[in-house]
Structures are given as C-alpha cells and as structure tokens.
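ok new one. same drill as before - structure tokens go in, u give me an amino acid for every spot. 285 of them this time. try not to just spam alanines like last time pls lmao
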C-alpha cells in the first residue's frame, strides 16, 4: 500500500493531462501534392544513393519545412495511385513516405499524365488557386500526353513544378534480390539498359503548368527552390482538427496517493499501540 501510494504521488507530480475537446483550428496555407515516380528506372544510382531514395530524402526535408500548408502524395509508374490524401498531419506524411518503394505498383512504365490527372482530382475544394503539384521523375514518359494533361490541370488552378531526377549520361538499373544487388537490367538482346534523364518533356510540363523545372544533382535536389516559389503563392484558409484546452488530472492521482499513505500511517500506528499494550501486559505479569 505504501509503495502504491508513493507511485500515485509521483504520477501526480508528472501532471497528467487530457484533451477535453476536439476543436477546428483555422490555418492559412497552400495545398501541395507531390507526384513521385517509382518505376524501376528510379533505382538508378547516378543520383546517390539512388534516384528514388534521394527523392524520398528530399521530400522528408520538405515536410520538415512546412508550417501551415497541407500535403498529399501520388505515386506512379505504369499507373498512378494516391499514396496519401491531402492532410496537415506531417507525421502521417512521413510515415507514408517511408513505405514507398518500386514494388508498390506492379505495372511498369512512367505514366506522368496519369499522375497529373489523379493529383488534379485529389485536390480539395473548387477554388482555382492555392494548389501546387511537384512532379519528381526521370522524365522517361512512354504512356500518355503529359504535356496536355499539364495544360488541363493548370486550367483548374494547379501550378505544376517538375524536378528531373537523374543525369543526361544515365546509369544502369540495378536488380536486387533479398536486399543485395545481383545484376543490372538487360534488354532482350542481353545489353545493359541505360536510363537517362529526359528534360524536354519536364520543361514543357512546367511551362504549361506555369511552374519551374529544376534538374536535380548530387549537391542540390531542387525542392528548396521550388518550396520558395510555393511560399510566394496566395494562401487559403482551411480548418484542421486538433485537441485543445488540455485539462490537468494530477489531483486525482495525488488524492488517491495521499489517501493510501494516510491509511498506511493509521494502520501502522494502531499496530504499534497494540504491540506496546501487549508488551506492557506481559511485564505486569
């Protein structure tokens, strides 16, 4: 009982709190969706440690710099999927980012136009501004008319920036098994496939989207420059839910702890008196 009472007092000293209500907090920012290429060509290592891993590192740093903006993620290869709907929960964004890999989409290819269309549909609200799309890819688009998709997206108010992840000289595509590289991807003739950065389409997409194209390098991934451009955009107001008015609950633990200590003291004191009386009785005898 004594140990339990002391434990409760210690907990009370830690000042436990409970959120009393979920409140909508008003924020002002921009909605940002990042469309990330996860086709096999993004495994190439001309950008260290690889095109994909460097992209994920850059996105993680971008999330760290966000304050009131909301973020969403689309991944694409031969098809496009929403990886993360628009949210202001940056911790969730990092969690979803960590799970991204090239095996998320079985259909290979680089359907940039699909990603633009899906991202455009994923923005929240009908306003024709406050929306930014960042496309990170090596630019090897073989599936659709991405430039036309960019033109349509901008008509709905989406500003599109593109980052070319790779080098013009290119690099082979590693093949791994059980976490170890075993070979490089080869074509039907047995020649090693070299994947190169194609900038022309990415420049055209950024031009139609009234955004900026940046060619990433090992020293600069380009996202800081684009975030600086986004920070100049008009902001919109939106609400986000969070617990507010945290209320102290230490008094319950303190009261319980003191009560147990008082009971322990009372019981111990009574025991001592009884023992003393028994000793006195024995002496008289």
């Amino acid at each position: 009982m004594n140990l339990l009472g002391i434990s409760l007092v210690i907990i009370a000293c830690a000042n436990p709190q409970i959120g009393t209500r979920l409140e909508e907090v008003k924020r002002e920012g921009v909605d940002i969706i990042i469309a990330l290429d996860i086709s096999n060509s993004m495994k190439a290592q001309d950008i260290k440690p690889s095109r994909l891993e460097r992209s994920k590192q850059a996105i993680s740093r971008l999330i760290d710099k966000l304050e009131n903006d909301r973020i969403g993620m689309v991944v694409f290869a031969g098809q496009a999927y929403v990886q993360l709907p628009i949210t202001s929960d940056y911790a969730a964004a990092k969690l979803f980012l960590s799970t991204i890999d090239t095996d998320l989409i079985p259909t290979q290819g680089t359907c940039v136009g699909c990603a633009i269309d899906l991202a455009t549909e994923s923005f929240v609200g009908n306003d024709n501004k406050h929306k930014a799309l960042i496309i990170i890819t090596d630019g090897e688009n073989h599936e659709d008319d991405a430039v036309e998709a960019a033109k349509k997206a901008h008509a709905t108010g989406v500003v599109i920036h593109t980052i070319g992840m790779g080098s013009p000289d290119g690099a082979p595509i590693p093949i791994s098994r059980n976490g170890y590289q075993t070979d490089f991807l080869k074509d039907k003739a047995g020649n090693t496939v070299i994947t190169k950065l194609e900038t022309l389409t990415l420049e055209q997409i950024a031009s139609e989207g009234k955004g900026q194209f940046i060619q990433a390098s090992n020293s600069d991934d380009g996202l800081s420059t684009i975030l600086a451009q986004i920070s100049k955009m008009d902001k919109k107001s939106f609400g986000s839910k969070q617990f507010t008015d945290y209320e102290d609950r230490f008094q319950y633990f303190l009261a319980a702890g003191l009560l147990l200590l008082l009971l322990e003291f009372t019981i111990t004191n009574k025991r001592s008196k009884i023992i003393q009386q028994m000793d006195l009785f024995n002496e008289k005898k």
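The first helix runs from residue 2 to 13. and btw The chain has eight helices and twelve strands.
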